[in-house]
Design goal:
- The chain is α/β, with parallel strands linked by helices and 230 residues long.
- The protein is built from 9 helices and 10 strands.
- The protein has a 10-stranded mixed beta sheet, with helices on both faces.
- α6 packs across α7.
- The longest helix is centred in the C-terminal third of the chain and has 14 residues, at 151-164.
Length: 230
């Protein structure tokens, strides 16, 4: 099994084999919390317009997403696991669009399989990939706004790579250090309304969930994210 780490939209476009699209802060942490909170379906889209269009087609659907980290006007929730935990999502279809994570999913056109990656289910990702044992795995760290390398996504990629290679990796300090690097924005009082401190802790709860989110391309260009328990 060959494992490589790439970044951003370009990395997603060129990902081969099993593509793991990684967005720790916060898209694919949100996806895991949404399913754990009772959602029955997640549809990932690239554009706001597509999200609004899908909303008209699915009864009992909820719009979740962000631009510039803030909740999109007209959406039900922002891209925040804290908001997810405060909302009854039982039986809901989630329509999700973000700057980095969902765009990575939509652009992974060369990959044979697509799954998401985050710290909250990193070990489940490893176990799933090992169960199918592909020749190639591409770990795509989407980064901050899909343009700037982010410590949390690259850390998640290294943790998954180590697991796939059966290597020990002491990640505890690196996770705690995120609070003074890429995670410090969650502790800025100016961001409290859309990016609260609890989001940091919820997104860094390593291996909280024993399931993965597997992507299936739709004819409309968006991606169905299905929960697979491991």
């Amino acid at each position: 099994m060959k494992v490589k780490i790439v970044e951003f939209i370009e990395g997603a476009k060129n990902a081969e084999g099993v593509a793991v699209i990684i967005d720790v802060f916060r898209a694919f942490s949100v996806g895991c919390y949404a399913y754990d909170s009772g959602a029955v379906r997640i549809i990932a889209t690239q554009s706001i317009e597509e999200a609004f269009d899908l909303k008209t087609k699915y009864i009992n659907s909820v719009l979740i997403g962000e631009r510039d980290e803030r909740k999109i006007e007209g959406f039900d929730l922002g891209n925040s696991p804290t908001e997810i935990l405060k909302t009854d999502l039982r039986g809901k279809t989630i329509i999700h669009t973000t700057t980095a994570g969902t765009s990575g999913l939509v652009n992974a056109s060369k990959a044979e399989r697509i799954i998401t990656g985050s710290l909250v289910n990193a070990d489940a990702v490893v176990r799933y990939i090992k169960s199918i044992y592909p020749d190639q795995v591409t770990l795509v760290a989407m980064g901050y706004r899909a343009a700037i390398s982010s410590e949390e996504d690259l850390l998640c990629a290294r943790i998954i790579r180590a697991g796939l290679n059966n290597e020990k990796y002491s990640y505890e300090k690196e996770i705690s250090d995120l609070i003074t690097s890429s995670g410090k924005r969650f502790f800025n009082p100016d961001n409290l309304d859309f990016s609260p401190p609890t989001d940091f802790f919820l997104c860094t709860m390593i291996n909280k969930f024993n399931f993965i989110l597997k992507g299936e391309k739709r004819v409309d260009g968006s991606v169905d994210l299905m929960r697979i328990d491991i």
